[in-house]
Every structure is written in C-alpha cells, then in structure tokens.
C-alpha cells in the first residue's frame, strides 16, 4: 500500500507539471489561425486522376491514388481570386465531394458577411463559408502520472475491460485519430501508429499532448511492462494532425479538418475519432456524411454549449459525454469515462486528464472491440449496440449522482453481438500491489 501511495504522490507531482500546450505554430498553422479574415471556398473539380498533387495522399495505408486539380477548377480559382481581390492562402482537392477547396483572405475593406454574399452569388462557387475554429476538449485533471500503472486506471474497471479483452482486443480495426501530432515513439504506443500525416502544413512537428493522450486511451499497448492499458490495444491508429497547440490548449479549423477527413475517406479506416468541438460547419458535415454512408463509425466529443455544432450535431455521429458529469446522458449521447483518466503524454510521460475528448476516445476504443469481431457492422447498428450496453440502465433516479451515472460497458457490448458469454459480466478486480 505504501508503494502505491508513493507512486500516486509521484504522479500528482508530474501532473502539476503537465501542460497541454507546447511549441508555437508556424507556417500554415500561423496563417490559418486568424479565421475572421478568411473564407473557405469550393469549386467543382471534375474527376481528374493523375500525378500526385497537394490533394493526393501517399500510398501504404489503403489510400487511393492521386487526385489532381483539374484545369477547370484551377481556372475558376484564379478568376475568383482576381475578380474578388482574394489572396489564396492554401488549397486542397477533395475527391469524395468532387471539389477543389481553398482558403482565401480578402483585400477589400468589406465585411465578411458582404464577401460571403458576393461569393455565394458567383455561379462558379460550389460553396462558401467562414473559416471556423474548433477546440480539443481535454484538460489537466485535478490530480495528476502501470501496465505498472494499471491499478490507477479506474475507467478500465468501469468499462469491464479486462473481461472484454478475453474476447476482443481490437485486432484488424483501423482508427483515424484526427487531432494534434501523436508521439509514435512513446513506449505505450510503439507499433500502434501505422502512419502519421501532418495536414496543418508545417515542415517539422514535435509530438503534441492532446493527440498523444487520445491515442493512449484508444490503443496503448498491454502486457508490455510499461504504463497503461488501452481500450483496444491491438487496433491500428492513423494519426492525422489537423490541430496544433496554441494558448494553453489546441485548436483546428475548417480547412485543416477538411484535409484530414478527406484523407480518412481514402484510407479505408473503420473509425474516425474527433475529440474536439466547435460550431456547425457545412463543408465538414458533408464529409462526415460521406464517411458514414461508406460505413465508417464516427465518434465526436459532446459540446454541451452547442449540441447542434460540429461534430456532435451531424446526424449519425456517436456523441460521447463524460459519464462522471452527473448529467443523465439521454437520447443518443453515449456516456463514457472522462474524469481523471490516466493516459500517455509525449516523452514517455503519463498524466491524469479530464474532458469529453477522453470520453470520445473510450467510445472509439469500445467500438473497435466490437468491430474486430463483427467487421462491417453498419454505423447505426454499432451505435445502437453501444447504446444498449450502457450500465446501469439510464434512469431519472441516477440523475445528478456521478457515482451512479450510467456508463458504456465493453463487456455488455460484446454480449449484445453474441461474441462474449454472460459470464463476461462477472466482476473482476485488479490485484493491488503490496
């Protein structure tokens, strides 16, 4: 017991040193960080397969070949820039929508609303919208850094994880983590990150906290004598950097997220994890609908202040809420662990974090356990399965009591798809170290 108390004391000290921010963004991240003066514009881009371009994605992860910018789209963008006095910031062809997407800043002293009106009236414009900003939703917990730390992972017990792992560990499932840069060299993530891509546009990127933390929850290695155990330790992760650290947290925008989602559409992933929240976004919503239609399970963090925002407001998205909030997760919201979650940080570190970002990661992990044994399950069926696995059953009697809050249960989810037997639900306890 004394050793465990000393370990916890050490972790509390580490937690006091944890920051979710790091380097100052440069290059494209800096230029795209001022949304008030920028617009996202798409024009039709007739299918033009050809040599690799800025919009194509590298091979090696089930990705499709190059999707080039067509001459028609290129001429349209040039004309829009010239006639509306726009400055091109960056561009990206999106094959799934058949469009070429660009971020423009404008030179004229007119309001954003007026520029939106002018472009919407231009017949060459397929869509136009503001450049929205989105934020990741994790924060340092009140406490602060196995399997030495396994005994500190209370969420694993709440999920019935050890029993669930007798039937599934997520093998064969690919999860796209759309987030900040993942530390692929972390001891608990070595071999779990099949590929990383920087969609922000910086030349060199150090590992960042939020993406590393989310990845650890989903797929940290088990049985390796290191740190923690992930929900689906045999799942493969595709780290898509669409967010960057800034001002004590991390942010993304419409353009970088559109890039990441277009890559996910090409990458034959099974799950997309979006541990972020922000305003409703037409372009991003179209891309999510394409993913869902193609059978990809999309998980998003809840935004209590804007339930209709992105990604949670898009029909078909599995929305994750912190179960420990004491708020009854009604309707289609999935309650999952999100408070004092021990997870990975860059540099081989660990810390306790809070937030619906972590709840979303838990939902993605449990979904991977199910899909590993039931590949090809439709997103709506999978979401219904996860809803039915919530224990104890949702009841007004549990409202306001975090200790009795209904929560996703990995074992029950596997029982529901006839993978696990009911003895999966027997309580299991982790032996405490002397």
Automatic annotation (TrEMBL):
The keyword Aminoacyl-tRNA synthetase does not apply. Pfam families: Peptidase_S8 (PF00082). The active site is at residues 179, 210, 357. Residues 1-21 form the signal peptide. Residues 170-277, 339-390 form the Peptidase S8/S53 domain. One of its GO terms (molecular function) is serine-type endopeptidase activity. GO terms for biological process: proteolysis. PROSITE patterns: PROKAR_LIPOPROTEIN (PS51257), SUBTILASE (PS51892), SUBTILASE_HIS (PS00137). InterPro entries: Peptidase_S8/S53_dom (IPR000209), Peptidase_S8/S53_dom_sf (IPR036852), Peptidase_S8_His-AS (IPR022398), Peptidase_S8_subtilisin-like (IPR050131), Peptidase_S8_subtilisin-rel (IPR015500). Keywords: Hydrolase, Protease, Serine protease, Signal. It comes from the Bacteria. Belongs to the peptidase S8 family. This is Serine protease. It comes from Abyssibacter profundi.
